[in-house]
Amino acid sequence: MQREPIKNHKDLEVYQMAFDAAMKIFELSKKFPLEERYSLTDQIRRSSRSVCANLAEAWRKRRYEAAFVAKLNDCVREACRRQAEAAETQTWIEFAVKCNYLDLESGQELYGTYNRILGGLVSIITNPLPWLMKR
């Protein structure tokens, strides 16, 4: 059984996983206390969305391997104040669980999803050639 060719970033499994996780975080964070609106709620939403945004931007830069890989690295690196948006999101998930804003099961599920997202990004970074545009 052969897969459909990937035509844009939305067809990437890692993008779909990141988008779905960001939307789940958005829904779950609606229940966070109002005093967290400009700190935890804002941070976790921004970092989760940034993974998708950086991946979309990387997809547009795949004409050049160095630019493509550099932008993908932004997805992996940009959090923990520029260490990785996905890793930053995991940190915010941990805080949300510790503060009892998220139940442990939801936190573990989201954390695991971001481990898979990180793995997918690293996989593309270490083997970018299949994703580059043919010249």
Task: Describe what is shown at a glance.
By secondary structure, the chain is mainly alpha-helical.
Written overview of the protein:
The chain is built from six helices and no strands. With 135 residues, the chain is mainly alpha-helical. Helix 1 (13-29) runs antiparallel to helix 2 (37-60), helix 2 (37-60) runs antiparallel to helix 5 and helix 3 runs antiparallel to helix 6 (104-126). Mean pLDDT is 84; it is low at 78-83.
Strand content: under 5%
Helix content: over 70%
Reported for the largest beta sheet, the result is:
none
Query: Care to count the β-strands?
Result: 0
Count the helices. How many?
Answer: 6
Low-confidence stretches: 78-83
* Computed structural class: mainly alpha
| Subunit arrangement of the protein | single chain
Shape: elongated
- Report the span from N to C terminus: 28 Å
SSE sequence, one letter per element: HHHHHH
Radius of gyration: 16 Å
- Averaged pLDDT: 84
Features:
single chain; 135 residues; mainly alpha; 0% strand; elongated
